[in-house]
Design a protein that fits this description.
Number of helices of chain B: 9
Distance between the termini of chain B: 36 Å
Order of helices and strands of chain B: EEEHEEHEHHHEHEHEEHH
Strand content of chain B: 25-35%
Radius of gyration of chain A: 19 Å
Radius of gyration of chain B: 18 Å
Distance between the termini of chain A: 28 Å
Number of strands of chain A: 0
Shape of chain A: elongated
Largest sheet of chain A: none
Order of helices and strands of chain A: HHHHHHHHHH
Structural class of chain A: mainly alpha
Oligomer: heterodimer
Number of strands of chain B: 10
Number of helices of chain A: 10
Shape of chain B: globular
Helix content of chain B: 25-40%
């Protein structure tokens, strides 16, 4: 990693860690949802057959939900920079478009990883309180499985932050967060819905992110449960990362035209 | 030796011509003040020299390197302080400087030393651990200029650097800029005539994207028959207006 990427990534990490809102949205809100939905689970009668809020399903779901906020903060950071003279200064420096892209992605990936670890730890503790022990290999595999979806969300944030203004980007990301939590099957079992809803959900990456993370945590490692959703997540990740890099490079060229 | 050269440099934005066939030169180590009323084309000229905007026609050279074909090399030897303050708001003064030094190629130890040098030069010792966001406008501007200087640029572009500074801060900054003369080629855009008078070796006056004239203060006074830069500037701009 070049000196320039390290310097820019470190700057972005500090900017994010010093913004109190990032703790509220990237950490407190997902953890709050984990606790609230666990309480909801205790209120749902067992005969209702609702399994989405069981801690072994809820923890990976909330981890994916949390990643959507990393997307929001990536979009905010990029759009804010683009709207300020700071990026003009950086454009006039020897930084290249790849330096910018890595400089944005790497610190956000660190945040997403820390978020996944904290969510998994919270899920483990809540599980113990409720008399369920989440397996360590499952937790480790789940955290690793969440990496492609983290890169996917960061790339989406980079894409939105590059294409839209500081005012428009967060609003559009909020739409995507709502869409992601709804179509990702985080709060209900989307697989059991069928019909148009399931067809639409399968056109977006969120359902695969949730499914692969859940299968990893529960060590259900068959191709249909784990391999296929993970493969689709990786493909979405590769496509959107390439698109975000291309769009950032194009916009940088247009800015310098 | 010529450090900056524009040959028929032109920039158009759609139908509007921001800079029109500009021919301009600056010697190495010289401080060139670029004057003009709003919309004269000063900032666009600076943007083309710093590879932030590609010329529509013509060419510009920085230390003999073309802005069309040697952008990466040019970016390694120029520094710019943009018109608006360009700092990272949640980083401290020192962190901003160290970050910029590392972007310019310094390692961690070199960046620390370079930041210390700038903090001393701009008398920012008390503010070095203060986040940029909480600094006053004047201190943010000082930091922004220090960030432009930290990579030891061979050519420095200061786009209205003293805008918003109080008189004491302005004078202190003048001292810093004066100290650069002879070693760093400086292009200074400003609306303050006394600033150009106090600092510039040569003055170029622009209006509507055209270079009206360039020369020393004495040459401008002689050309217009006026005394003082402000009178000479007004005469030049009004003459241009009358000719249209």
């Amino acid at each position: 990693m070049s000196n320039r990427v390290r310097a820019f990534a470190s700057r972005n990490l500090k900017e994010l860690l010093r913004d109190p809102l990032s703790y509220i949205f990237c950490l407190a809100f997902p953890l709050g949802m984990l606790i609230v939905m666990t309480l909801v689970d205790t209120s749902v009668p067992a005969e209702a057959g609702v399994t989405s809020f069981r801690i072994w399903n809820l923890t990976p779901g909330v981890a994916v939900f949390g990643q959507t906020f990393v997307m929001l903060f990536t979009a905010l950071t990029v759009s804010k920079d683009r709207g300020s003279s700071f990026l003009v200064r950086m454009y006039a420096s020897p930084m290249r478009s790849a330096d910018f892209v890595f400089g944005y992605i790497l610190p956000m990936l660190g945040i997403a990883l820390a978020q996944a670890v904290i969510t998994a730890a919270a899920g483990f503790v809540i599980g113990l309180i409720r008399g369920v022990s989440l397996s360590f290999p499952g937790i480790l595999l789940c955290i690793l499985t969440l990496l492609p979806s983290a890169v996917l969300m960061i790339s989406l944030g980079l894409l939105f932050g590059t294409l839209f203004s500081e005012k428009a980007a967060p609003g559009l990301c909020s739409v995507l967060i709502s869409l992601g939590s709804f179509l990702g099957g985080i709060w209900f079992d989307i697989e059991s819905t069928g019909g148009v809803l399931l067809t639409v959900a399968r056109c977006f990456p969120f359902v695969y992110c949730t499914r692969s993370a859940r299968s990893a945590l529960n060590l259900q490692l068959s191709f249909s449960d784990y391999g296929l959703p993970l493969l689709i997540t990786v493909l979405f990740c590769a496509a959107f990362t390439a698109l975000a890099c291309f769009v950032f490079r194009s916009r940088m060229r247009a800015d310098l035209a | 030796m010529i450090a900056l050269e524009a040959k028929k440099l032109t920039k158009r934005f759609g139908q509007k011509t921001a800079v029109d066939s500009l021919d301009l030169q600056a010697e190495k180590g010289e401080l060139l003040a670029l004057l003009g009323v709003n919309g004269a084309g000063k900032t666009t000229t600076v943007r083309m020299f710093t590879c932030l905007s590609r010329p529509t026609e013509g060419e510009a050279f920085v230390n003999g390197m073309s802005v069309l074909t040697e952008q990466t090399k040019i970016k390694e030897i120029v520094g710019i302080s943009p018109q608006d303050t360009a700092v990272s708001p949640l980083l401290t003064v020192r962190e901003n400087l160290e970050m910029m030094a590392r972007v310019c190629g310094e390692d961690a130890a070199g960046a620390k030393a370079a930041a210390g040098k700038m903090i001393a030069l701009f008398r920012m010792e008390k503010e070095e651990n203060t986040r940029a966001k909480t600094l006053s406008g004047g201190w943010q501007r000082r930091l922004s200029i220090a960030m432009a200087l930290i990579g030891d640029p061979e050519v420095l572009f200061l786009d209205e650097p003293t805008l918003g500074l109080d008189v004491l801060a302005r004078r202190e900054l003048w001292q810093v800029i004066r100290a650069l003369k002879g070693t760093v080629t400086v292009v200074l855009t400003t609306h303050y005539m006394e600033e150009a008078e106090a600092l510039a070796d040569r003055i170029a006056v622009m209006a509507d994207g055209h270079l009206l004239t360039s020369g020393t203060l004495e040459e401008l006074e002689k050309e217009t028959g006026e005394t003082g830069l402000e009178n000479a500037f007004i005469a030049l701009v009004e003459r241009r207006g009358g000719n249209e």
